[in-house]
Design goal:
By secondary structure, the protein is an alpha+beta fold. Helices cover about 35% and strands about 20% of the residues. α3 runs antiparallel to α4 and α3 runs parallel beside α5.
Length: about 230
């Protein structure tokens, strides 16, 4: 896919921004700032040039009878993205569950799907929906569920400056969008947490289930998050 970013334009815009806030873009401390910002934006937004569904599809393998299991859960995938409203970062953790169909997906591939979709101007709600769609379409799963728990710098560093606030969103498809499947997946994600953002995201999801054999990721928990909603 063709690289979209125009570095010269980004650097010129940063110089103009510095001048606009009353700074001198040519003073020693700022003279290389436009190039540094362009370097950072190349990393932050490289996902604009990636096809997340293709990444998912190419990371799958056929699954025979007795190889699929009922549910696969991968917890604690770290991600960072950039809020499209303020161009400030938000950082968090993604937890994914899917109900296999005829194929399985590499667990590392799920992290690459999250990275591809997070590395573009985003909204957390949309990011979750896009991850679900990419995994659903690429894997042809019977259902996908994604819980995102993130801290937004547009909330923690400006306005009310709620430095302990996190935002939790849930997106689901297929059998995991149905009440029973959704509750089971969220219970597994939140297993072991006495109070957990993921467990609280679904009515009837009880924390503390034994997920040793069901979860594909580490035996970590979703805890300490509070659903404050995203800043518009």
């Amino acid at each position: 896919m063709t690289q979209r970013m125009d570095r010269a334009r980004v650097e010129a815009a940063v110089r103009e921004l510095l001048a606009g806030i009353g700074e001198d873009p040519d003073r020693p401390g700022l003279e290389r700032t436009p190039q540094r910002v362009a370097d950072a934006y190349t990393e932050f937004f490289h996902g604009l040039d990636l096809d997340a569904t293709r990444i998912a599809r190419e990371g799958t393998v056929p699954a025979g009878d007795g190889e699929r299991g009922d549910l696969v859960v991968v917890r604690d995938i770290l991600f960072r993205s950039v809020c499209e409203h303020h161009l400030l970062p938000f950082l968090g953790t993604a937890h994914l569950a899917y109900a296999p169909g005829e194929r399985l997906i590499g667990l590392g591939t799920l992290a690459r799907v999250v990275e591809a979709l997070a590395s573009r101007p985003q909204l957390q709600e949309r990011l979750g929906e896009q991850v679900v769609a990419a995994v659903q379409d690429g894997l042809e799963a019977r259902g996908v569920l994604v819980v995102l728990d993130a801290q937004h710098q547009c909330v923690t560093t400006r306005g009310e400056r709620q430095t302990s606030s996190t935002t939790v969103t849930v997106a689901a498809s297929g059998v995991l969008a149905e009440a029973a499947g959704r509750a089971e997946a969220i219970t597994l994600i939140g297993a072991g947490a006495s109070t957990g953002a993921a467990a609280g995201a679904s009515t009837g999801a009880a924390a503390g289930a034994d997920t040793t054999s069901a979860a594909g990721g580490s035996d970590a928990t979703v805890g300490g998050g509070r659903d404050h909603g995203t800043d518009a």
